[in-house]
Every structure is written in C-alpha cells, then in structure tokens.
Amino acid sequence: MTDSNTCNPALAKLAFLVGNWDMALSDASFLSDPEQVVHGYLGCAWIEGGAALAMHQGSEPSTPPSAKWIIGRDDASPDYSVLYSDARGVSRIYAMTFTAGTWRLWRDNANFSQRFQATVSDDRHSIVGHWEKASDGKGWEHDFKVTYTRLA
Questions:
Q1: Which in 19, 45, 55, 80 has the greatest CB count within 10 A?
Q2: What class, spelled out in words, does domain 9-150 have in CATH?
C-alpha cells in the first residue's frame, strides 16, 4: 500500500479513505424488511503505486453484493471517474466529486440513473449518505442509506 504522501496528486483529497470500514446499509428498497440493517466490509487501498484508489466491498455471498470500485481523475478536471463492477455482473461508470466534506457520485442513463450524496465527518472516521435511483432516468426515488465507520 502506498501512503498518502506518494499517491497520485490528483487523488490526494481521497487519501483519508485508505483503510478498513464497516458499512451499514439501512432503509433499503431491495431488502425484504425496511427496518433491517445489513453490515458489510469496505476496504480502500492505493493500487499501481498510488495511481488509482481501489475500493472492495463485501464478499460472496453477501448483501449487498461483493463489488469493486476503481477511482481515478484527470488532473485537468475537478471531477473523478469511478469504474464499478459487482458480483451480479453489473458494470457502471460514475462521475464523482469530493468537496468540503461532501462526497457525491452520479450516473445519468436513460434506462437507469443513480446518485449518491454523503457527508464526511470532520474527523474523517464516518461517512453518512444515501443513494437514489431513477429507473426511467428521470423520476428519482430513495434507494438506500449507507453509513461507513472506520475500523480500528
């Protein structure tokens, strides 16, 4: 693992993500019980000598499904690009911003759009957010809440 001082300078704002996190999903449209809270694991590490940030979610079988995220950025653009793939065979590309403690991801597609917004705590040990979806690309509805808590 590369430390935050040797990561790609375009990704320096994301260095706090490196490490291990508990992931708690709640109020999820895909769970049979809306009161259920599902815990999972999220690990974040630099890859390729700090050129990109990799996030690994869960393990099979699990809810949510095991997923991988690769985050990179064009140093001439303020936005990040995120490649996503999960155990269901889903592959997506998201745009992403991280500014002033607000983390946003979105994907605009006529058949299925998504957006995520979260607030990062001042100490950067917790992240609280929610996902929304639009099956037709227009009509937004709540999908689920997620809280990430740094593991010791």
A1: 80
A2: mainly beta
